[in-house]
Design goal:
Layout: H1 8-38, H2 45-84, H3 89-99, H4 105-120, H5 124-154, H6 159-202
Helix pairs in contact: 2-3, 2-5, 2-6, 3-4, 4-5
């Protein structure tokens, strides 16, 4: 059988098109926003401003929460891996913390990376249990403190809606869908709430 290139198009999009689009929006975002606002009818101008501002704040809050989560988990992983003598502790800690951003699947990927490095080390048999304890400590920190305190404050989203959105987005967009599912769901719900209130007020 030949090599399957069916996923090559998506890979090119993620690696090239997405960064280019982000640069364009960061560079000309202000101009694009003004052009969009110029075509908004005066009757809905206030509503669109409120909606845009709320979505912007929601995205910024979520990104700040993710950065705090990444920093805390990196410190926990790095401290633990360094104490148990895991090779390449900074890189493995950064990978494990970054993988943790992916809902549900991420912690397993991070644990797999750390255990893989431990197994390849000559003292791998003695490192497996300590590495598992470090991973457990990091996940406990994430589940008890980071998720309910930091990320919950950043994105007001019901757990059931979060789970359903992650499952749905994963089916259509894979790992990328899992990463963007929660902020996207919160933006959709926020937009519906604002539109409902404003349109009801306008009659």
């Amino acid at each position: 059988d030949g090599v399957d290139f069916s996923g090559l198009g998506n890979l090119v999009t993620y690696l090239f098109a997405t960064p280019i689009m982000m640069i364009v929006f960061l560079w000309q975002g202000h101009e694009i926003f003004h052009r969009v606002m110029n075509i908004v009818p005066n009757r809905y101008f206030e509503m669109v401003i409120l909606l845009t501002y709320s979505i912007y704040n929601n995205i910024i809050s979520y990104m700040k929460g993710l950065l705090i989560q990444l920093a805390i988990l990196f410190l926990v992983f790095y401290t633990g891996f360094a104490l148990v003598g895991l090779p390449y502790a900074p890189l493995v800690a950064l990978a494990a913390a970054a993988f943790n951003i992916i809902p549900y699947l991420g912690p397993a990927l991070g644990a797999g990376a750390a255990l893989g490095v431990a197994i390849m080390d000559p003292a791998g048999a003695t490192l497996i249990i300590p590495v598992l304890l470090v991973i457990a400590a990091a996940q406990l920190t994430d589940n008890v403190f980071i998720q309910p305190v930091i990320l919950a404050g950043a994105v007001q989203l019901h757990p059931l809606i979060a789970i359903l959105s992650v499952i749905t987005m994963q089916q259509y967009f894979g790992i990328v869908g899992m990463v963007v599912a929660i902020p996207l769901a919160s933006i959709v719900i926020l937009a519906i709430e604002i539109l409902y209130r404003q349109l009801k007020a306008f009659g």
